[in-house]
Write a structure and sequence with these properties.
3 domains, five-stranded antiparallel sheet, 16 helices
């Protein structure tokens, strides 16, 4: 087995920045209780103005008067770890959060699906970069070794043959040993793990105890290691709170993008799609405004979900200034990725039409789009009608018919160059008082277009009824 370890050295800060309207503005996380609060972490804009970790809050604000601060909350950091585990679950059924500041997951069984490790690694890093999280990534034969190697490396991939050599170069301070054990070993003159590997194991156990021996055995894969495995939630709910009220739909774009990215990662972990989810807008001084986002087919791509959601938002009117946005989904369906066709053909055309249909429904509403349903009627104007029900399962008319029937028929003589086919007699409707008796022809216009025209039997004047594509 091979295990990957992802270390997130700035998870608390980057998670907080994802919840801010302007992530580039000076910002810092605080630790401690007032009035002794100190800077725990700061973004690049704050560091450029002299803000550093460990500074008292007052000093940091003197260096950077525009500094925004928020307290470091362990519960918030843990929620972000859970969300990253949900993202990793899309690639492995064995994901663990047992190690602080990191997650480990088994990758050997995923390589057949996601390609060799270099391609898989590039995919993981690309998605984490899109999510906005700084990280280090290492692959090793067991999770304990991966966790300690990521303390000193980024991009390292070792197998069983190279594991002990890679571990031997690690300083004891980064080896995962307890601080007391590291101090004891340092006083005895040891500085790296490799120096411990050369000692006889009985002598090492006598001098430094069984805890050190157990840890070294876990790093080498000789000692069984039981990790708690992550299990995904059965529903999705995320919220975003604004720093100031938002008065226009356009102001919801940034939080929606973030929330839908998280929904997409959650759906990939579930190997599922979503056809309906809800958005709840918390309003200033009034009840929340809630509406449903419905899709024609299961989706999970973040960009597609954002496009369709924004199109539906354009049809609503805000009932007041927005203070928060909550996105929730509780029902998920099986998702089959769209098969990409190399060359244009019926399959590509069907995919394009499905995407266009989805966008039109999102922008105009489901009631505005109705399929054309064929009716068993010889009169052309009564043979097809718009319906909100399912499409017809069979085709009644097999003869040549135009794709565009005019709502009102007009005189046709000025445009006809010649008649190509006909006449075709259509005589029907005597039973309902709307009887017709016509001879139809396929006509060519002076500009080359083909039209469907008719005249009464024995008559001379033609009427235009439809156009062929």
């Amino acid at each position: 087995m091979r295990w990957a370890c992802l270390l997130f050295p700035r998870l608390a800060l980057e998670g907080a920045l994802r919840r801010r309207d302007d992530p580039t503005a000076p910002f810092a996380l605080l630790e401690g209780a007032p009035p002794r609060q100190r800077i725990r972490a700061a973004n690049q804009a704050a560091r450029d103005q002299g803000v550093k970790p460990g500074q008292p809050r007052g000093l940091a604000e003197a260096f950077c008067p525009a500094l925004n601060c928020a307290p470091l909350e362990a519960a918030t950091v843990e929620r972000w770890r859970q969300r990253l585990a949900a993202w990793a679950y899309a690639y492995s059924g064995q994901v663990s959060l047992d190690y602080p500041h990191a997650l480990v997951f088994e990758v050997a069984s995923s390589l057949a699906l996601f390609g060799p490790w270099p391609a898989f690694e590039a995919r993981l890093r690309g998605e984490l970069a899109a999510l906005g999280f700084t990280h280090r990534l290492v692959v090793a034969p067991n999770p304990a070794a991966a966790r300690v190697l990521v303390n000193a490396h980024d991009g390292l991939a070792v197998d069983d043959a190279g594991l002990e050599a890679a571990l031997a170069r690690l300083p004891l301070a980064r080896s995962g040993l307890a601080a007391e054990s590291v101090q004891t070993l340092n006083r005895s003159g040891f500085r790296r793990l490799g120096e411990l590997f050369t000692l006889p194991r009985p002598a090492l156990a006598r001098r430094f105890g069984g805890g050190v021996m157990r840890h070294l055995g876990e790093l080498r894969g000789e000692w069984p290691l039981a990790l708690a495995v992550y299990r995904p939630a059965t529903h999705f709910s995320r919220s975003f709170e604004f720093e100031r009220p938002v008065h226009a739909i356009a102001g919801l774009a940034f939080p929606l993008k973030r929330l839908l990215q998280e929904l997409s990662a959650f759906l990939r972990g579930q190997d599922a799609g979503v056809e309906r989810f809800s958005l709840v807008l918390g309003l200033e001084g009034g009840p929340a405004q809630r509406f449903e986002v419905g899709l024609l087919a299961p989706q999970r791509d973040a960009e597609t979900l954002l496009e369709l959601t924004r199109a539906q938002l354009e049809r609503i009117r805000l009932e007041g200034p927005v203070l928060s946005v909550t996105l929730a989904a509780s029902r998920f369906t099986a998702y089959a990725p769209v098969r990409r066709e190399l060359l244009a053909g019926p399959a590509r055309q069907a995919q394009a039409w499905a995407a266009l249909h989805q966008r039109l429904v999102a922008r105009l509403g489901e009631a505005a789009l109705k399929p054309l349903v064929e009716h068993r009627e010889h009169r052309p104007e009564a043979a097809v009608f718009a319906a909100a029900g399912p499409r017809a399962t069979d085709t009644f008319e097999t003869r040549l018919r135009p794709g565009w029937l005019l709502a009102e028929m007009t005189p046709a003589e000025p445009g006809i160059a010649r008649l190509l086919a006909g006449p075709e007699r259509i005589e029907s409707g005597w039973w309902d008082g709307d009887d017709v008796r016509r001879d139809y022809y396929l006509a060519e216009w002076h500009d080359g277009r083909h039209a469907w025209v008719w005249r009464e039997p024995g008559g001379e004047s033609f009427h235009l009824h439809g156009w062929f594509g």
